[in-house]
């Protein structure tokens, strides 16, 4: 066997990428801390990788020296799909709501739950390595609405 062919075969066998790594890695650019101006306050969103199939996020703002938690979210890779599962303080009896992958491209994540009251769609779009836009959209009281949240990456 020629050395090049042997090395190629060895590499393919030993460094195989699993579906879980491939799926969750599509959202890897989201990891880290992001900040946005939300009215008069500054809101922070942090994402960490828990394992090869789960990212954990939390969104909060500071009130003096106190941290006010707004939302805890997981992005999970299972059954060959990504799921975005937020628990929002003061909404949905503080129970998780599942949004299913509706579209994933390089730098864009789109999740949908057409039965949720509002939003029915949540997306994240990477603008450049240091900026992104989160967006929620859907129908609320019969009117289609979109809310955008520009964010910048913290060092």
TrEMBL record:
- InterPro entries tied to this protein: DUF6265
Q: Where is the DUF6265 domain?
A: 29-137
Entry-linked Pfam families:
DUF6265
Lineage of this protein's species?
A: Bacteria, Pseudomonadati, Bacteroidota, Chitinophagia, Chitinophagales
Q: What is this protein called?
A: DUF6265 domain-containing protein
Top-level taxon of origin:
Bacteria
